[in-house]
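user: can you give me the structure for this one chain? tokens are fine.
assistant: on it. calling the predictor now.
[tool input]
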Amino acid sequence: MQLQEELKPDIICKLRAGKRFKMAHIANETCENVKFT
């Protein structure tokens, strides 16, 4: 069930990046799984 653990932060990071692309770099630090760069 590792997908659930990675899915949770993945969605949070995506939502954060989607709402504020400028803060994408901040979300990247919080979620290394997702890369916005």
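assistant: here you go. The chain has two helices and no strands. Residues 12 and 27 are 9 Å apart (CA to CA).
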